[in-house]
């Protein structure tokens, strides 16, 4: 899904999420485990405000495991509970309900003390496009397809999906815009496929990827392309990659455009293994 974000759309998205927030006890903020910082909406703290929140690092199967562990620790230390999941195969999803119960424990205990019978926790998912919101909702819905009725007072008919006895999830996620102002976040979103190629310069993206790999994953760069340092010589690196992979133009010179495409494709196809682009120590 491609969304063009204009100020009017952003205001509308924010309004919709704010409306939905009133119906839930907790927000599941979905982010890409490869980009725990860059794949967040820039105004998320403002929008969620004081509503309890669980950060869910999705696509953990594609991220650097050691970095994911560091990020989880980092979120928890800053007072935000976080879990890592794979929405495609369901790995880690059992943590979601447990974490939500933990976060709301005090509130639920207070309700119990007042003699109010505990009910299911109501939650909604928010996140930028492509982080896996629909996949996660479908995955959770599969367990128990029984849906409760519409919620009155909301323009679009919204339904609650029952996830076990303890959790109910709004079937419509809140879709928020990504970070536009930060070019580095833009490159990272493009390298993970969240932003479509048409709006990004392939060569800029490829050069960013090479520098990133040199800085954070030199071993993997060496394994794939035979060098671990660019020595500040980008054209030289392109020549080496072009020769290694035989990317020539008709006259036998290196085809730079094709080398750019090849680098970006290699990153996206995980030819460098599982990469995390937001390093916890850099943030
Ligand atoms: P949405 O725009 O946030 O609703 O994102 P989607 O649910 O449409 O997912 C975007 C892409 O990410 C799809 O191609 C999904 O198959 C893929 N995806 C979602 N969750 C995971 C995951 O945990 N692991 C992997 N590898 N891919 C995922």
UniProtKB/TrEMBL annotation:
GO molecular function: GTP binding; GTPase activity
Classification via Pfam families: MMR_HSR1
A single cellular component GO annotation: cytoplasm
UniProt: GTP binding residues: 58-61, 86-87, 130-135, 174
Domain CP-type G, residue spans: 14-178
Subcellular location: Cytoplasm
PROSITE patterns linked: G_CP
Signal peptide range: none
Domain of life (superkingdom): Bacteria
Family matches, as SUPFAM superfamilies: P-loop containing nucleoside triphosphate hydrolases
BP terms from Gene Ontology: translation
Family: Belongs to the TRAFAC class YlqF/YawG GTPase family. MTG1 subfamily.
This protein's name: Ribosome biogenesis GTPase A
């Amino acid at each position: 899904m491609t969304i063009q974000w204009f100020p009017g759309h952003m205001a509308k998205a924010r309004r919709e999420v704010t409306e939905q927030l009133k119906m839930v006890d907790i927000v599941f903020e979905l982010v890409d485990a490869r980009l725990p910082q860059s794949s967040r909406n820039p105004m998320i703290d403002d929008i969620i405000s004081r509503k309890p929140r669980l950060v869910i690092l999705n696509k953990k199967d594609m991220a650097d495991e050691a970095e994911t562990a560091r990020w989880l620790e980092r979120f928890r230390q800053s007072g935000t509970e976080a879990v890592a999941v794979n929405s495609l195969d369901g790995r880690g999803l059992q943590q979601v309900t447990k974490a939500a119960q933990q976060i709301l424990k005090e509130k639920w205990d207070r309700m119990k003390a007042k003699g109010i019978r505990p009910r299911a926790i109501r939650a909604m998912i928010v996140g930028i496009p492509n982080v896996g919101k629909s996949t996660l909702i479908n995955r959770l819905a599969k367990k128990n397809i029984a849906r409760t009725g519409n919620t009155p007072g909301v323009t679009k008919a919204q339904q609650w999906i029952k996830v076990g006895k303890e959790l109910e999830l709004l079937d419509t996620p809140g879709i928020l815009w990504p970070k536009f102002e930060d070019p580095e976040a833009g490159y990272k979103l493009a390298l993970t496929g969240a932003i479509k190629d048409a709006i990004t310069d392939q060569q800029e993206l490829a050069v960013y990827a090479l520098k990133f790999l040199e800085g954070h994953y030199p071993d993997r760069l060496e394994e794939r392309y035979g060098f671990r340092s660019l020595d500040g010589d980008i054209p030289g690196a392109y020549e080496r990659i072009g020769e290694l992979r035989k990317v020539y133009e008709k006259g036998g010179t290196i085809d730079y455009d094709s080398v750019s495409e090849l680098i970006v494709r290699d990153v996206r196809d995980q030819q460098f293994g599982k990469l995390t682009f937001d390093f916890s120590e850099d943030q």
